[in-house]
Every structure is written in C-alpha cells, then in structure tokens.
Design goal:
Shape: globular
CATH superfamily of the largest domain: Dehydroquinate synthase-like - alpha domain
Number of domains: 2
CATH architecture of the largest domain: Up-down Bundle
Low-confidence stretches: none
Bound molecules: fe (ii) ion
Structural class: mainly alpha
Oligomer: single chain
Distance between the termini: 42 Å
Number of helices: 13
Strand order of the largest sheet: 1-4
CATH topology of the largest domain: Dehydroquinate synthase-like, alpha domain
Strand content: under 5%
Length: about 280
C-alpha cells in the first residue's frame, strides 16, 4: 500500500511532470492489478510478485522525479506510525483514502484516471463520480490485503489530534507543501478528524437506488446526447411500464433522502431503497 501511495501522491502532487506521471501511471496499474494476488498467493504467484517489485520501483522513482512529490498521506503517517506502533505502509494506508478525498476536487481527471487504472467500472459515470471511485478502489484494496481500517483501532484519539498535527506540520512541511491541494494545519486536523470518525459505531449506511425521475440531474449525460424524440418515446415507455404509471418526482426522492438522514430512520442500516415506481418488480 505504501508503494501504491507513492504512485498516487506523486501523480496528484502539483509538482508532477510528464516523466513522473508516466512512471506513476504504470506503477498504479501494476500494483492495482497485482497486490491482491501477490498478498494472497505469495511465492505461488511469481508474476504478481515481479509486478509488485516493478510497481514499487516505479513509484519511488515517480516521487523522486517529481521533486520529492508526495503529500499529506505521508505527513499523516508519522504520528499514526508512532502512536499506533504500525508499519509505515499500514500508517500510509490508513491515511491515504481520506487524503485522496480531500485532494480530489482539485484533480478530478487524474483521480478518475487512477480509478480506471485500478480496474473500476466507469462506464456512464460523470467525471466526479469516476474520480471518487479511485478512493473506493483504494479502500477495497486496503481491506483485501488486511490493512487496519480505523485510526481508533491503532490507538489514535480525537482529543489528541491537535498535538499530532502540531508535531508533523512544521517537521514535514516540504511534504505538506508538495500535496496536490493547499493545506493548512486546520485542514490536516479536519482530515484526521474525518479519518477517526469514519466507521465509528452509530454511523448508519443506506443507499437509494433511483429509477427515472423528473427534475433531477440523474442521467443528464444521456439527455445531452440522445435525440429529443427518442427521449420522449423512452419516457412514454417508462410511464407505461412502471406499475405506478409515471416517472418519479424530485421531491419524492428528496423525501426519502430526508427520512434516511433523520432520526426517524435511526434503526435502519445496510439497506438499499429502490425508488422506481415499481419498474424493477
Ligand atoms: Fe512511503
């Protein structure tokens, strides 16, 4: 995971250049495609191990060519490693998805590229959605190779965040400065807070699976490229096919979202709510 972080941080630092990008892209592709099998099959899968060696070497060279172009995942790894008594790779792995989330808005295209290199299915998605899948891809890989998932599990406490940040911010300022998005000590504090809160007890996770609705941006990419007559004919088919005989309204979708965000759904978690007028029955 450390080797992957070298590729991702050097690819998304503002210091990246065409040579570091070339190295980081190939490194991400090799590591994304081989780490699971190198971890899970060990010496029985020499090709995966070879790919990891090459990917690791490419990642190191990528951040060197980018002028020590790493970032906040490495900055944050220092207190995580010291407090949690974990390896450098485990510490970076814990920080990396949260740092990617923070950096994502200033580099959507590159994060979308990372998602593609790591094998995510991107068809039909907008740029921001594709970029966000890079974060998900790293989280999934981290789970699959047995990395710790929560900062609290390795002993980091919310009340100690200020001292963590004070300790690392000045000491590792060149890495803070290399990060893809400008960051103050307050920003680093917020990333630590988000990382510690993530996955805590009491956070419910539910999903809305919307069908066809009016007044939303869902499917806007298709609307932009489909002829109007075909769209109208398609809408007619939806209205005829759905048991409720129409497309949904945006406010109906909003009502479900408000319910899920409120205390009224306090005992609901792990559910997928299909909101499609019965179309998929
Ligand atoms: Fe590292």
């Amino acid at each position: 995971m450390d080797a992957l972080s070298h590729c991702i941080e050097s690819f998304t630092t503002w210091k990246a250049n065409v040579i570091s990008d070339t190295l980081a892209v190939k490194g991400t592709e090799l590591i994304g495609g081989s780490l699971r099998t190198a971890y899970g099959q060990g010496s029985k899968n020499i090709e995966s191990r070879y790919n990891m060696c090459v990917g690791s070497m490419l990642g190191i060279n990528a951040f060197l060519v980018a002028g020590r172009g790493l970032g906040l995942a490495h900055v944050m790894s220092y207190p995580i490693r010291e407090v949690g008594h974990v390896t450098h790779g485990e510490a970076v792995s814990l920080a990396l998805p949260h740092v990617m989330e923070y950096n994502l808005p200033v580099n959507l295209a590159k994060f979308a590229g990372i998602a593609e290199l790591m094998g995510e299915e991107l068809q039909g998605l907008g740029l921001r959605e594709r970029a966000h899948l890079a974060v998900e891809a790293v989280k999934k890989l981290s789970v699959d190779v047995g990395m710790p998932q929560k900062l609290r599990d390795v002993g980091l406490k919310k009340e100690d965040i200020t001292s963590y940040v004070d300790n690392v911010f000045d000491l590792h300022f060149p890495l803070v400065e290399a990060n893809g998005r400008n960051a103050s000590s307050q920003d680093v504090t917020k990333i630590f807070e988000a990382a510690i809160e993530y996955g805590e007890n009491g956070i419910r996770v539910n999903c809305i699976a919307p069908g066809f609705h009016t007044g939303t941006n869902i499917g806007k990419e298709w609307h932009a490229i489909w002829p109007k007559e075909e769209l109208a004919a398609y809408d007619e088919i939806i209205a005829k096919t759905a048991p409720l005989g129409r497309k949904g309204e945006a406010n109906e979708l909003a009502g479900l979202a408000i319910y899920l965000a409120s205390d009224a759904s306090g005992y609901v978690t792990g559910q997928v709510f299909i909101h499609d007028g019965g179309l998929t029955i």
